[in-house]
Amino acid sequence: MEPLSMVHSRKLFHRRLFNSEECPSHLEEVSDQILKKCDGLPLAIIAISGLLANKEETKDQWHQVESSIGRGLERNSSVEGMIKIISLSYFDLPHHLKTCLLYLSIFPEDHAIEKMLIRRWIAEGFIRKKDRYTIYEVAEMCFNELINRSLIQPDLSDHLSDLTFEDEVKYCRVHDTVLDFIVSKSIEYNFVTIVGVPGINSDPRNKVRRLYLQNDSEIPKGLVLSNVRSLNVFGQDVKIPSVLDFKHLRVLCSEDYGQLEDHHFTDICNLLHLKCLRLKDVRIRKVPGEISKLQYLETLEIYARNHCTPTEIPATICRLGRLVHLHAYGCTMPDEISGMQTLQVLEGIDASIQSTTFAHQLGELTNLRKLEIYFYEEVEEMESSICKLLREGNLHSLRITFEMGANKFFKSLPSQCRLQEFVIKGYSSFPMRLLSSFVNLQKLSIEIYQLYGPAIEQKDADILGDLPNLRYLSVRCLKRYAETAIITAIEAHPNHPTFKMFDPSEVDEYC
């Protein structure tokens, strides 16, 4: 990439710091001095702006940062120069943020990292409760802080993020140069043991705490695995020994590891310290009943690959008294789930493959705060349970996909509910007028697969004015069928909500 001119460097720098191209007059001189040392390198400018964002806007503070940069970039506008600035940003972090950042060294280069990594931070013990915030909220703040400091980059790629809101980042990436830096620090501090990445060799004399396996790697002989707290596997052909060798494991995550079979899961159930288990793209037919032995498990994510034969989750999962987050994509849930009262997040549920008993008992999980569910066919009992959760429970976030039955569901909505975030995907016009009971709604996202005729009429869009707390609105549909109606309603709304509209026809996604 060509270096930026001074004019464009100023624009990038000032926008990052001040949300404007203007710089306060008392900082103009030192600002130019800093930019001169950055020598037009975008990553250097972004990293320094992230560092300065957490400093007072005084000449003294900024001169200290300018002096600490040295003259490295002026003499050598290369990776070494940028590493110097990244190092400044890293050493400016508080200890817990350093730890969270180093943990990102377990991900491959250019990997889209799900925000769910914060549950791994929690399981590893990096995060502590703070004041009135939950431990999850503190972890979210750490994630956002790393973004604000420009050490990780929000990934808003449309194919990854669906419809995200203005203040929501679901994926992030680490710039190659930043990744090189944190990998080198992780190795220096023996924070992570990396196997399968070209140019990185593990020292078998080191104590292995976190193990990251990639590509077709094999664990070197001599590595002692009994103290491993975290095992992260990326790739189909990684060769790993029995998981029973990892007796103190707290976090086990595999991505696209095709060799995991049912009997391996039985061994996993003997990892009694496990707190976070993530298995993506697995071909397991049935989760063993012994999963009830994992009494410390807080997060369970299963993404089944074979949708023709869903993965069966046993009734013994209800004995997991600490389970807070369950993602069960492509899985059938047990019938009796009313006892899972610790559960706060339930995602990936396909209503069409669940039993009638499960559908009915879903309404008993009144501590659920977030629910994601897919309706590929109408399931009346499931719809009734969701309405019960909206009426009697603590549900704050609902993400729901309909292929049919949407209108009937909305007609049965309660007169009042606590819902703050609602994401709806449907295959027909959307009756927005039925949202009048969602008076606490702050975020609304609508995706409509409507090829002909009005997706959202003006009389429906006007209901937005009855949602007094609405702050964000995202809509995906053909603009010619909805844009005018929604813009008119948004302009009339007292909050003037942030509004984003996506037209799938403009990116060749419609078929």
Number of strands: 19
Gross geometry? flat
Proportion in β-strands: 15-25%
Enumerate the spans where pLDDT stays under 50 for 5 or more consecutive residues. Answer: 71-77, 507-511
The radius of gyration is 25 Å
Span between N and C termini?
36 Å
Which structural class do you get from the secondary structure elements? alpha/beta
Main β-sheet, in a few words? 14 strands, parallel
Order of neighbouring strands in the sheet with most strands: 4-5-6-7-8-9-11-13-14-15-16-17-18-19
What is the average of the pLDDT values? 84
The residue fraction in helices comes out at 25-40%
Count of individual helical segments: 17
Structure notes:
By secondary structure, the chain is of the alpha/beta class. Helix content is 31%, strand content 17%. The chain has 17 helices and 19 strands. A 14-stranded parallel sheet has the order 4-5-6-7-8-9-11-13-14-15-16-17-18-19. The protein has a three-stranded antiparallel sheet with strand order 1-3-2, with no helix packed on it. Helix 13 (356-361) links the parallel strand 13 (345-350) and strand 14 (370-375). The protein starts with 5 loop residues before the first helix and ends in a 9-residue tail after the last strand. Mean pLDDT is 84; it is low at 71-77 and 507-511.
Defining traits:
alpha/beta; 14-stranded parallel β-sheet; 17 helices; 19 strands; 31% helix; flat; disordered C terminus
